[in-house]
Task: inverse folding
């Protein structure tokens, strides 16, 4: 009767699914208004111009345009969307 009994507890605990966090639209790519740019826990990235932030810190585009990631201070990274009209005139 040599059976292992009650030893599997350290191998369990994966019943919840992953949350699919991270960048969904990268810098230089185009985003439409309402597209999710990145999903995060806390504010690793802060909203810039042309983007909004949901209550779960999801950053999404408010206007159509190109996504840009910038660093303004040493520890603050920003995400912005430059509208397509501004790109054409520049």
Result:
């Amino acid at each position: 009767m040599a059976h292992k009994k009650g030893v599997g507890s350290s191998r369990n605990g994966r019943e919840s699914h992953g949350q699919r966090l991270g960048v969904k639209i990268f810098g230089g790519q185009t985003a439409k208004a309402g597209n999710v740019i990145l999903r995060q826990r806390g504010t690793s990235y802060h909203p810039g111009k042309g983007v909004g932030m949901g209550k779960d810190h999801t950053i999404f585009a408010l206007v159509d345009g190109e996504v840009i990631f910038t660093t303004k201070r040493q520890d603050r990274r920003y995400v912005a969307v430059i509208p397509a009209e501004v790109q054409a005139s520049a």
About this structure: The two ends are 79 Å apart (CA to CA). Residues 31 and 65 are 6 Å apart (CA to CA). The chain is about 5% helix and 35% strand. The mean pLDDT is 88.
